[in-house]
Write a structure and sequence with these properties.
heterodimer, A: mainly alpha, 2 domains, 3 helices, about 0% strand, flat, disordered N terminus, B: about 220 residues, mainly alpha, Four Helix Bundle (Hemerythrin (Met), subunit A), 2 strands
Chain lengths: ~140, ~220
């Protein structure tokens, strides 16, 4: 068993707070402290999730019945898309990272959405009930 | 004592002397990004196709044949699933806080948040096992209907991804406890985090498309 390759800096006290003074909001690698942003983002996501769940409990809300129920579906899909991109941009750091990483991810995402929307359309998924091609 | 110094920094997109993200295990890369991170993003891009296929299959097969159980039979426990979704969502927060703590050299908090992430992930998986058990008790087996097959395959695949994520989290936590995850290797934790957040993002879609829109787009 070899000894650990490094020892933790003595500047970290029992509570985990660095004892040495550091510029607020940045560490020694120049990273911005995004902790406040992360917490606010999580709260925002929790609120959106709450709204999504609320649609289950308040089924008589007039907006949900718009377009024979299309209103509810559009609302839920909008919430979903907002949550998706919030996580990808903030938590996955795509907002702060190299553009090439965005290209890698969105290439896969756009290809997937295009292909599977085409498949669903081929199966007449967007049409109601009996109009859909039965597998 | 040889200390590992793998400089890692969020790429600014403009490689230069001050941009250490162009260095991968001591070598500069043509892309200006570390190869490991680029590979993880490419993998996540390909995962979009995997889950896209599973979600599409579910949407096509979700209408059960006559006499079979389906999503319209009130099988889904929305309040329970909402709590599960919230738990997974919060695990993404603890994950980024863990990474942030490591970047600052705050190893204690890094481990605490990492442990919390693994715990929340385990809680989510426990909820999924409970939900599956309840469905089976109600007569919705894996091969009961085309709806159930598509549902179990999709949510099961996601559950496997979460389980793999938990294993990665615990492994990373053990590395940290054994002193093998210095802040210079924060990118390792960031890559584990990317996978974890992706698993969360997939659940965001599953929660809406499967649980909250069970009837699909109405006429």
């Amino acid at each position: 068993m070899t000894a650990p390759a490094y020892t933790e800096p003595a500047s970290v006290d029992d509570s985990g707070h660095p004892e040495s003074p550091e510029p607020q909001g940045h560490d020694d690698h120049g990273h911005t402290d995004h902790n406040a942003t992360y917490v606010k983002t999580a709260l925002f996501l929790a609120v959106i999730t709450g709204l999504e769940t609320a649609t289950y409990f308040f089924k008589d809300f007039p907006l949900w019945h718009w377009g024979s129920g299309v209103g509810l579906t559009l609302f839920l899909l909008t919430c979903m898309v907002i949550k998706f991109f919030t996580i990808v941009y903030v938590f996955m750091h795509l907002r702060y990272d190299n553009k090439l990483l965005s290209i890698c991810f969105y290439a896969g995402l756009i290809l997937a959405v295009t292909v599977y929307v085409a498949v669903l359309t081929a199966f007449r998924f967007w049409w109601s009930g009996s109009h859909m091609v039965q597998p | 004592m040889a200390s590992v110094t793998v400089p890692v920094e969020h790429g600014s997109g403009e490689p230069g002397l001050g941009d250490l993200s162009t260095i991968d295990h001591g070598h500069e890369t043509n892309t200006g990004i570390s190869n490991t991170k680029l590979a993880m993003w490419l993998f996540l891009g390909s995962e979009c196709l995997l889950f896209g296929g599973l979600i599409t299959t579910y949407l096509i097969y979700k209408t059960p044949l006559p006499g079979q159980l389906g999503p319209q039979d009130g099988l889904f426990d929305i309040p329970f699933t909402s709590v599960s979704s919230f738990v997974l969502l919060m695990s993404s927060l603890t994950m980024v806080l863990s990474h942030s703590a490591l970047e600052k050299g705050d190893y204690y908090r890094c481990r605490v948040w990492l442990g919390a992430t693994a715990l929340l992930g385990s809680l989510f998986i426990s909820g999924q096992i409970y939900e599956f058990t309840a469905f089976v008790r109600e007569g919705l087996g894996f091969t009961s209907s085309r709806f159930s097959s598509a549902f179990y395959v999709l949510t099961g695949f996601h559950g496997v991804h979460v389980t793999v994520g938990i294993i990665m989290l615990i492994s990373t936590l053990l590395l940290s406890v054994r002193g093998k995850l210095p802040k210079e290797k924060a990118e390792t934790l960031e890559i584990v985090g990317l996978y974890w957040h992706f698993v969360d993002v997939v659940w965001v879609i599953i929660f809406v498309v499967i649980y909250l829109i069970p009837e699909g787009v109405p006429a």
